[in-house]
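Milestone M4 deliverable, item 7.
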Amino acid sequence: MKQAKDGKITLLFTDAAHFVMGCDFLGYIYGKFRRFVKTFSGRVRYNVLGALDFCSNRVVTVTNDTYITALQVCELLAKIAADYTGRAIYVVLDNAKYQKCAAVIEKAAELGIRLVFIPPYSPNLNLVERLWRFVKARLRTRFYNDFGRFCATIDGLVASTVSANKTIVEKLISEKVQLFDDLVAVNENTFQMGSQSRII
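Output delivered:
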């Protein structure tokens, strides 16, 4: 992060978000009588694979309404390489199989991009997760009955990180990352946390 702030490298945080139209309610209603909440009748998914620039908050994306696979990750890496030509590029991402695979690793090496895989079960280390939380919160404030409008709203919110919502996103994307120093392995897949955690 310090190297990126000093302009020595370009640092991007990458992950996919899957926005499902029709799965969220706009609120909760408590009362004696049954009430109906308007929602979309089907389930259509809009996938956004994004790479968030740590310094500028600009987001490079690849989108579709089917699935995110290694092909889309390679496509995103190619877009990143084209956008940041001549820069040392570091891309932080998780260990999803479609990201941590031979095709993606080979494509990154071909493009001169360094991949940094975060430890398993550590979404707190991937800052793009904060952006997805922001987009989902804004998306839930309205009912959508048209998939094109739903997708356009998401694209607009993602693009707004450097315009209308720049100040909000700058507060979300910071160098402060919560770390847990005293995790103790209970078994292969379970950890117990002690009393201390710290934010650096």
